[in-house]
Structure formats: C-alpha cells, structure tokens
Design brief:
alpha/beta
Length: 521
Amino acid sequence: MTTYRLENKKITTMKKIVYLPLDERPCNNTFCQFLAQNNNEINLVCPPLSILGLKKKPADYQKIAAFLTEQCADADYLILAVDMLLFGGLVPSRLHHMDVEEVSSRIEVIKTIKRNNPKLEIFAFSLVMRCPTYSSSDEEPDYYKQYGERIFKYGVNEHKYLDGLIDKQEYLSQKALLNVPQSVIEDYTNRRSVNIEVLTEVLKLVGDVINEFVILQDDSNPYGYTALDQRIVKKCLRDNNIDIDIYPGSDEGGLTLLARVLTRIKGYSPKICPVYPRPECRNVVPLFEDRAVYKSITAQIESAGCTVSEENDADIYLFCNLPVGQMLDFCGLYIGKTNGVDSVANKQYVDRDLPKFVSKLAELHAKGKAVAVADIAYANGGDAEIARMVSESVGLLNIAGYAGWNTSSNTLGTVICQAVFYNFFKNTPTHRRFTAERVYEDIAYCSHVRGSVTANELPKLGYNYFDVGEQRGKVSDVVARQLDKFVGDYFPEIYTEYKISDCYMPWRRMFEVGLAVEEKK
C-alpha cells in the first residue's frame, strides 16, 4: 500500500472514477456517491441501480461487464468490488452454484478493461466468505436456518483437529454430536472452495493489472471455515510476494478505497491520530471481529491511503468511542446473540469517562484541529450519549466526521472516508448533510427506532423483523415518523436544519434503513 507525503497537488482536470459497489444497499451503493457529489475535482460514475440485483438475486453479469467496459475506457480510476463482478453481490457470493471455470471466466473483464485503457488505475477489494455462528437463512443458504450454528461448530471442529488441538476421538465425537447432513456440508464447503480458489486467481493480478487490493473479513472468528480460508489466502500472498493485509470489514470497502483514490489524486496522505477514552480501550475486541480494535483502526487508516500519526503531528484526530471491556450489541435482542442493551449504566461504559473524552475533543476543536468521531462503543448503532455531548459542546455539524453503525469496521471505514473528504474540501454542505444523515440513521434508527418499531409496531401491522412487506409502505412510514420525533427531541442541532426526504427498507427487513435527508427551507 502506497502512502503519499507530497504537498497537495493542484487538480487541473476532473478525474473520472468508476465505482462498482458490493451490492445495492445504500451503505454500499449510495454512501460513496453522496460524499463525492457536488465536487469539481472528481466525477464518480456508478452502474444503474436496476442492474445491481436485490439481496439474494444476483446482479446482471452481462450488464455489469458492459458497464465496466464502456465506462472504464476513458476513466482514471476503477474502484472494484470483486464479489459483485464475480458473483453478483455479497449475498449471492454465499448462494451461487457456479464452478471454478465459470467464475474464473469473469476475471477476464478486469484484464480486458486494463488492456483497453492502460492508464486506468484499479483499486479492488474482496471478502473472505463468512461463516455465521448463528442459525438464520436471511443472508445464507436455506439450510442455514436449521443447521447454521452447527455448520459453524463443524468448521471449528475440523480446524482444531487439523491443527492437532483435539484428538481423533474428540473430533469424531463432536462430529457425530453435531449431526449435519453430509449433503449440506458438501454444498457449503464446495462453494467455499470455489470462492477461495477464484480469489487467489484474482490476487495474482495485483501489480500488473490491479494497482491496489484490500481483503476484508466479514464476521471473524479465530477457528472455523473462515479462518482456514484466510490461511489459504495468506499462503497465496506469501507465494506471490504480495503485501496485502486481511482485516475485519465488509460494507465499508468502497468508502475505504474512495478515500485511497482521493489521496492518490491529491498526492497527500492525511495523518490521522486515534484517540481513546482510556488506554485500555485500544485492546477491546469488537463484536464480530477477531483482534484488538487498535489493529483494525491502523489497518483501516492505512487502507484509506492515510498514515497513523502521533498527537502532535496529526491532520485529523479520530476519537474512537469504546467501552472499557466487553462491547454490547444494540441489535442483539433481535438476532439472538445477546440480551440487547439495557442502558449505559454498564460498568465498562461508565468507566470510559465520557465528559473528559469529549472535553479533549472540544479543546482540539477550539484550536482549529479537525476532529472526527468513530462511534464504536456498541455494535449495530451509535451512542446517543456521546453524540449529544458533542452536539451540545462543539456541534456535530462542525466536526470532520461521524459514524456509528453495524460493526466497528463498518463505522471506521465510513468516518475515515468522510474525514479524508473534510481534510481536502473542508465543511461543505455535502459534508454537513452526510453527518446529519448519520445521526438520523446510525443513532436514531439503529440504536433506538429499529428496536422500538420491532417490539411495538410490527406485531400490530402483521410483520416481523425479517419481513416488513414493502420497501416503501406502512412500516417505512412508521419508521420515518419515529425518526423525526427522536431527532427532534434529542438532536435539535440536526432537526432544525435537516428533514427526511426519503425513507425505505432496502431489503424489506428491519436490519437496515434507506434514508435521504435534505435541508429545511
């Protein structure tokens, strides 16, 4: 990964960036478009939403290939979600029935567009297929609803036996106890084998065809099928002398590479200093991830084309809101992982000493420093407590970035990208509106309205967490009203300036919401 220490280059012509997202959800498809709009230095070109598929329905490969061939002919950069090109999206990558030969044939598109436009710089990312610990077929094969947890444990058993951590008797005993049908295991492992073999083929293009590559890991665990696949990828990297890290992440991949392209265009790597509530917070292992958070923060900063800096030499101060201990999950109540989050009275949250943390942020802001908040105290939602403190002290609309959604890495990639844009273009109307949208979505929806509507409104409407009927219907109307009330009650700074212009449920479930906000007249 290349970093840049030049002075900011004066851009004389608009740079064309073609972007193929991981899937059609707003976090993948529209966040990048949002940050890049109203900008006279870059032109981000994306495929039409109509060809990107829908959840388990894969994108139209022929139309994707045609889009890339046409638009990359005169482009300067391509940000490429490899899983979209090869499988038709993130979820389709877990469901397809293609063999290695069929998937490999699609790699030729990458070679062709580079051959047709040698000056094109390709920034690509791909995921190592996850193996969820729980039983749900929402984003997995149908049989995962019955066997999901057992499939995960089956993989852990295989891994530990392979590494000599358990003897044969214990291995066979656990295998029999799990009792997963062989047909299920074969379908699941065959697909994983195809995916990992093709990924290693793509990695061999790094250097000659692909300029930069990022490998992300969605839902990480130290043992199991995913960890075994990581081992294969790492061997491929060593054998081909490719210097690429594998770190937790998924839906923020496009944003990370957009930031990286921008630093390439500008010829400068912003220096980012992570700031923690307390020193021990840096060692927290976030939910769904497999390493101390400081390692992921470093990886996210560097993958975005930036450098990790000391406090006295930073362009951006990244305030990482974390507990002093185990992270809790705002969404856990609805997916069966935890008992949900009761309040911030949990000791690991009290011990953060937020007043002191926010006071330091305010002091740096008063000195004219760029400060951003990576709100990663909880999984699946922003922390209203710190957000209100920042809003009341310096103003959320005055800082360099804010995010607090889904996983720690999703949040980090989002806020780092926003902060990189802020570094180069300052506090533009686009920047402020993106922050306002994060408040409506990350805090109001993810942490509060989602749970309230699920528990109190869906039963009355005849729906459930995984089925809300229409994208735009009764449920989205209820959600919009509750969002409006919550932001009005708790974030007047945002509410007085911005209102919801669109609210919908992209995958017709409660997990995510599609939002757009606009300035009030």
